[in-house]
Each structure stands twice: as C-alpha cells, then as structure tokens.
Sequence to fold (201 residues):
Amino acid sequence: MDINKIHRINNATIFLLPLIPLDKGIFDFVLPYKGKSSRLLNAYVYDVDVPKYQRNHVSVVHSNYQDIGFDAFERVLESSDYCVDAYDIANTEYGTKVFRIPNNSLLSYEAFLRGEYSRFCLHDIASVLHFDYLNQGEYLHKVFSKDEELRIKKEEILGTSLQDKELWSIYDPEYDLLHKDLKDKLTSSKLKPNNAFLNGT
Fold:
C-alpha cells in the first residue's frame, strides 16, 4: 500500500461525501504558522471492522488535531441528523464519523458502487460539483455526462475503444475502504491532514 495514495483524494471523497448535507467549509481550519488547512483525510465506503455500517453509509476520517475550534467542529458533525456513530482510529490521531446516506441519494450511492457515475441523480451531481473536492468541476461534469471529447481523449491514451463505458474508474477497495492495513499506515506514518483539498493539488 502506497502511503502517498492514502493521502490523495479518493473516489469516496469525490463522489460520496457530497451526498451528506454538510457545510462546504466544515473541515477547514487554520494551522498556526502554516495557514489554511483541512481536517479531512478522506471518506471511505465503509470500515471493514464495523460490519453494521457496510451498506448505505459513508465513513469520514478526519484529523483529531486539537485546536481551539476542534470541539465545535466535532459537535457540528455529530449533531447532524445523518451521523450515526463516531469513534477514533490510529491511536486517536484520527476520528471517524459514520453518516447514513440520505434516502433521496441512495440511487446515486448504488450507482457509485457499480461505477456508473452517469446514473447519478441530478441533485447529487450538483452536490458533487458544488463541493468539488477534486478541484476539477469541469472535468467531473464531463465524467457525469459521458462527454464525447473526453471519451476520445481517454481512448487515445488507453489505445482501446470505450464505446459507451463510464469515464471514471470504479472505487478501489485498497484506498476507498477503511481497513486494517490502511489504519496501520496511518498509525505508523503520523500522516498530516489533507492539504490537497485547499491547494488544488
């Protein structure tokens, strides 16, 4: 498992986290002497060690960095109507909040699990583009619409016909599920919060 890929924005963050009604800047905070940062590490389809939340939920992992705003941050997340559980991982370096997928987003959730992004509901497409954790809203719009120009470019790169296939790969269990190997890497690496969300990298 590549520690750098753990730190990269994963598919669950891009496509599932926006299905949860949260304020766009909820994970933002100011790191002393460093400036703006994000508490968010990533979202995960589920935690392998917690079977009861493996369907119709998303697990959100954030830094437990204890700044002046941390308690308020946690209260906001845990007071959400969709938050069903909260616990720490990686020797309490990180917190996990489990959210239930809203009923009106379940079709998009199921489409995500199948890698069928073009079948997302319109209101969920709007949410993904609004939150834009990838900082590439125009590109994601092309993914959702199966844009022909994007398909042709991908075909040239891959050297094969994509016909009517989706233009984004299905989620990767190695990096989109919260499992023991990933938790162990978090514990051993002292990974920092994911600044890529704010820097657009």
